[in-house]
Amino acid sequence: MEYRRIKDQDKDVNPATEDLESLRGKAILDGPAPYDKTKWKMKSMVTLALTFLTSSQAILIVWSKRAGRYEYSVTTANFLVEALKCALSLLALGRIWRTEGVTEDNRLSTTVDEVSVYPIPAALYLVKNLLQYYIFAYVDAPGYQILKNLNIISTGVLYRIILKKKLSEIQWAAFILLCAGCTTAQLNPSSDHVLQTPFVGWIMAIIMALLSGFAGVYTEAIIKKRPSRNINVQNFWLYVFGMAFNVVAIIIQDFDAVVNKGFFHGYSLITVLMIINHALSGIAVSMVMKYADNIVKVYSTSVAMLVTAVVSVFLFNFHLSLAFFLGSTVVSVSIYLHSIGKLQR
Amino acid sequence: MEYRRIKDQDKDVNPATEDLESLRGKAILDGPAPYDKTKWKMKSMVTLALTFLTSSQAILIVWSKRAGRYEYSVTTANFLVEALKCALSLLALGRIWRTEGVTEDNRLSTTVDEVSVYPIPAALYLVKNLLQYYIFAYVDAPGYQILKNLNIISTGVLYRIILKKKLSEIQWAAFILLCAGCTTAQLNPSSDHVLQTPFVGWIMAIIMALLSGFAGVYTEAIIKKRPSRNINVQNFWLYVFGMAFNVVAIIIQDFDAVVNKGFFHGYSLITVLMIINHALSGIAVSMVMKYADNIVKVYSTSVAMLVTAVVSVFLFNFHLSLAFFLGSTVVSVSIYLHSIGKLQR
């Protein structure tokens, strides 16, 4: 009875955003249909891939820091990440065209109506990345790591507002716990400095969290708007605008360095590995948006943060703090509550 | 339907332990009966009293530490706490006898069958207090404060096993969060030392948590076994044995000091205030056992810990750490989950 009531409520929801969440709910109650099983398998696979790629990303960052800083231009690397994602999407499309032929859903050509919203996430990320340079006047790097956990809350709130998808009370509680748990796990003796962040710093951190959350949720809205459209075509158009906006970033931030020292100055093996990793995890994020949602993405990257810390113990002789154990416990309980919250709502 | 299923399960439960939890569940579904309302009011009042007394207890301890250490014998103070509780119970009984007359439920005389279990909690506390002297060979005082949070888990587990009362899955999750949240709130830069506690120290901490949890749960079982018996009579017998076991503790630990320097050596105004406070909070604990349960007691003392920290900011210019905010958030979510877990099970 409880379930039927909730299903009725779901009817108010924008049909474009009513995706496999509800299918999965059905699968659990009625037993999985073969179609649901495939989708569920896809969802699990892309989530695992994102977790794996995000953890290895963080490990590459630690590795590159320990190997000494490379003075490459971050904006050129970001441009190459977008270009590589674009190339990989085209490659995947080429294979699909050969096996399935060109159809309405997988053709590359598009309409102004479809493509007009694609620049928005890239533009939001550009603004966020530019802001990132200014926030360090108010917060140090470890403090910024702590403040970045505000992304979790902003994503949840914007997911609710923009995609109009309901989270149950338990799932909201789980989301607050995820934010508190991730922050706890990252605590170190100097973390209390964050509390001295000036007001402007807090405002900037909140704006950046909103921009990042909005970009993520908007990407999901774009991708889910046309459920039958091939994900590689959707990715292609997202990444084309990603490339374009990164050209703008190169011109604003690193024009002189690129002209004087060359586009690839300061690149090393680790830089190349990081670009490949960023490209693959970028594609994994798109896949998670298509087959799951932003909430799964947030959980996946949070778990990746914990996995990174544990792996770093073995790779770099890191020590795990009591705060890490407590934070991990809270994150684990949060994941559990999120899953039972889904069934009980 | 869900509720009916759970009610059927409850029938297996020892009737002596089936108390106002179920009455409260009924009250929420059928609307509160006047009888339930009184009990609910009583439950809230004793819980608030316990929270208030526990916070002021901790504040008195901080005050006494700042005023310099008083070299009084802790065992004599513990004895006086029991004696004062005994006197207060008799006083309350005297008033009841005058207004209601002596009845079967409020007469002081008892049977061997009734009284035989009353020494057990006092004996358990004695063993725990004696162990406390030895654990400091393995853990320092701030580390012991952290390890004491194991009490939360041990109380939950023993509550389930001994009183055979079910907690819902959400309530278990809430309980783990309460433990993690309280520990997080108490974190300080030196807390990581706890992880280096030797194995013997861990075992002792776990045994002490079990002893303390068992004493609490057993007290609840004794008090709830005879629901109609006047709480002041039950308290009287508990405290008589408390006095007796504290005489044993004085002889074991402080015999020489008491003989040479006198029973009241080193007492000050703060010592007297602390004894009064301990006595009143001891009575509040008994009341919580009678009208609520050990779970309410654990939540109440955890909230008291947070209240103490906030009050200390104003009284002693303490600074609140980021860990405190995160821990408080987790504890708040835990309380919320515990309350919705009660309704949903």
Automatic annotation (TrEMBL), chains A, B:
- Transmembrane regions listed in the UniProt entry: 45-64, 76-97, 170-187, 199-223, 235-252, 264-286, 298-316, 322-340
A cellular-component GO term for this protein: Golgi membrane
The UniProt entry's GO biological process terms, in alphabetical order, are: transmembrane transport
List the molecular function annotations (GO) for this entry. pyrimidine nucleotide-sugar transmembrane transporter activity; transmembrane transporter activity
Q: What is this protein called?
A: CMP-sialic acid transporter 4
Q: Which UniProt keywords apply?
A: Membrane, Transmembrane, Transmembrane helix
Subcellular localization, as worded in the UniProt entry: Membrane
Kindly give the membrane topology term recorded for this protein. Multi-pass membrane protein
Q: Which NCBIfam families match?
A: nst
